[in-house]
């Protein structure tokens, strides 16, 4: 844990741009965390919950199924930010920037799919 704090201090001193990208990654994951929660409707027995290219496309499930998206989004956002800090100290800034960039691309694609699912209902 002390090493991780040292990694963040080093990044803050040497590469503030990467701190900005890490903060943006956290904001994107927080947005992915909030989208299903804001659109949650527990009074309905079934809600639009997933998209698949197989069969009908959109399908319905229980309302709590959407909460899984929230937990995964927050876990990935925070986890990838911590991994990025570790990569910065172990492998260098280029790999850390690449990793956080890919993480943000995944978050943006996931937000698009999640918005399609939530707005379908």
Description:
- By secondary structure, this protein is mainly alpha-helical.
- Helices cover 74% and strands 7% of the residues.
- The protein is built from four helices and two strands.
- It has helices at 2-14, 16-38, 65-90, 93-120, and strands at residues 47-51, 58-61.
- Strands 1-2 form a two-stranded antiparallel ribbon.
- A hairpin with a 6-residue loop joins strand 1 and strand 2.
- Helix 1 (2-14) packs across helix 3 (65-90), helix 2 (16-38) runs antiparallel to helix 3 (65-90) and helix 2 (16-38) runs parallel beside helix 4 (93-120).
- The radius of gyration is 17 Å and the shape is elongated.
- The N and C termini lie far apart (43 Å).
Descriptive keywords:
single chain; 121 residues; mainly alpha; two-stranded antiparallel sheet; elongated
